[in-house]
Design a protein that fits this description.
The protein is α/β, with parallel strands linked by helices and 183 residues long. Strands 1-2-4-3 form a four-stranded mixed β-sheet.
């Protein structure tokens, strides 16, 4: 339910998506060496982009950058009009900035955790949506977010999760509401 609230709030206040990757060296946790994470993310993003191409009508997307942010920075990015003391107590795994083609990953991102990787896929979908489509076709934010969730759910299903909705804390009714939201 918390993730459902996050998804609805993101629609109200703003978006928080074989593409090459540029990983920025910023405050990566010591648990993984920067070199190994950079190499792993490059491979993972290439594989996820190929998966998106195979499961959608999107062609290959141009280069996407990846940067690390802590929770406060991600929350501020996703909810820019909220004072810090009123930010929702939620965990944001990733956010996409279409103005810079950058995916921001939480510093706690685990490249070995399929759930974390599914959030990277979700943000890569947004990158494909916004960088590979005809700009004369305007799609509303809810439609784009719904498509990203549906592809994320399908990918988790292929990874063997029997209830991907539960893993993401969302349900079909909430997803339909998101998809219908014109903002």
């Amino acid at each position: 339910m918390v993730t459902s609230l996050v998804a609805l709030m993101a629609l109200v206040v703003g978006a928080c998506q074989a593409a090459p990757v540029e990983v920025q060296n910023a405050d990566r946790p010591d648990r993984f060496s920067q070199r190994s994470v950079t190499a792993q993310l490059d491979t993972t993003i290439s594989e996820l982009s190929d998966w998106i191409n195979d499961h959608s009508d999107y062609p290959n997307a141009p280069t996407v950058s990846v940067a690390w942010e802590d929770q406060l920075a991600l929350q501020t990015r996703c909810f820019p009009n909220f004072p810090n003391d009123l930010l929702p107590a939620i965990l944001i795994k990733a956010a996409y900035d279409s103005s810079t083609s950058t995916i921001y990953l939480d510093t706690g991102f685990d490249p070995e955790d399929p759930i974390d990787v599914s959030y990277l896929l979700h943000e890569l979908v947004h990158h494909h949506q916004l960088r590979t489509t005809n700009t004369s076709t305007v799609r509303h934010r809810g439609e784009l977010e719904g498509e990203a969730y549906r592809l994320q759910l399908a990918w988790l299903g292929e990874q063997g999760y029997s209830d991907p909705y539960a893993e993401l804390g969302i349900d079909e009714k909430t997803l339909q509401i998101i998809e219908r939201c014109p903002r």
